[in-house]
């Protein structure tokens, strides 16, 4: 005996629609694109910290962007600057019509033209107060190494420092920051035996780099979501 069950056509069609919908994968919202050095590249953020960024953003490497600006220009909403790269000049700013944020890794922003960047309606952030412990530790190390105070970058006249070291006015000096960076190979300071120069590595510890990258991500997300960033840097009036 065969038992026939009549299923209303509308119910059948609805059931089929449910089945089709269930089988279809969920669409994933595209992550915002940022321009940055490829993690792991020379002068770039260490590759160990790439997942922190990639969780929220799609990274367009500097090389990718240079090779195909037309493809990527409209997509870039933020630039992550690490070790003063990428260089933010007028040409790059004009090439990024949807740029909203320049996110600097580190405290110093001397390499950024803040008034120029701000004139494009782009916000700038840095990562202050995160490197204090690491740089203090290195400072003490340099202090012991030189048996003299640590001198940094533009805080001192490097020509005057060379003269003082050469004449014995200052016994020794240790530097982690110079201007420019790196010093030219023929710079007089590099010829002295009583000066120790490091490649601006005071903040290069695993823990410090991690919190810096996390803060960069937080600043970028805030700006892209229309919220005030934690560490905005504004042009001096």
From TrEMBL:
Keyword terms of this UniProt record: Oxidoreductase
InterPro entries, sorted: D-isomer_2-hydroxyacid_DH, D-isomer_2_OHA_DH_cat_dom, D-isomer_DH_NAD-bd, NAD(P)-bd_dom_sf
Domain D-isomer specific 2-hydroxyacid dehydrogenase NAD-binding: 153-202
Residue spans crossing the bilayer: none
Gene3D superfamilies: NAD(P)-binding Rossmann-like Domain (3.40.50.720)
Highest rank taxon of the organism: Eukaryota
Domain D-isomer specific 2-hydroxyacid dehydrogenase catalytic: 48-233
SUPFAM superfamilies attached to this UniProt entry: Formate/glycerate dehydrogenase catalytic domain-like, NAD(P)-binding Rossmann-fold domains
MF GO annotations: glyoxylate reductase (NADPH) activity; hydroxypyruvate reductase [NAD(P)H] activity; NAD binding
Residues annotated as signal peptide: none
Pfam families xrefs: 2-Hacid_dh, 2-Hacid_dh_C
KW Oxidoreductase (keyword) present: yes
GO cellular component: cytosol
PANTHER family: 2-HYDROXYACID DEHYDROGENASE-RELATED, GLYOXYLATE REDUCTASE 1
Family, as annotated: Belongs to the D-isomer specific 2-hydroxyacid dehydrogenase family.
Protein name: Zgc:136493
Record organism: Erpetoichthys calabaricus (Rope fish)
């Amino acid at each position: 005996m065969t038992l026939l069950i009549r299923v209303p056509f509308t119910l059948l069609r609805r059931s089929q629609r449910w089945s089709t919908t269930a089988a279809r994968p969920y669409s994933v919202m595209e992550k915002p694109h940022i321009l940055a050095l490829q993690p792991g590249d020379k002068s770039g953020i260490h590759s160990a910290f790439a997942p922190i960024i990639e969780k929220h953003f799609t990274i367009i490497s500097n090389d990718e962007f240079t090779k195909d600006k037309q493809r990527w220009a409209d997509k870039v909403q933020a630039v992550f600057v690490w070790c003063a790269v990428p260089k933010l000049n007028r040409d790059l700013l004009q090439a990024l019509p949807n740029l909203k944020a320049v996110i600097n890794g580190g405290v110093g922003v001397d390499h950024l033209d803040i008034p120029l960047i701000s004139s494009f309606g782009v916000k700038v952030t840095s990562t202050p107060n995160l490197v204090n412990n690491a740089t203090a530790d290195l400072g003490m190390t340099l202090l012991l190494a030189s048996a003299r105070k640590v001198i940094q970058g533009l805080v001192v006249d490097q020509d005057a420092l060379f003269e003082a070291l050469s004449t014995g006015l200052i016994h020794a000096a240790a530097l982690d920051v110079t201007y420019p960076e790196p010093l030219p190979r023929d710079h007089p300071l590099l010829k002295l035996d009583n000066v120790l120069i490091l490649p601006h590595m005071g903040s290069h510890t695993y823990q410090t780099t991690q919190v810096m990258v996390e803060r960069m991500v937080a600043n970028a997300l805030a700006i892209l979501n229309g919220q005030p960033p934690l560490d905005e840097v504004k042009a001096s009036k």
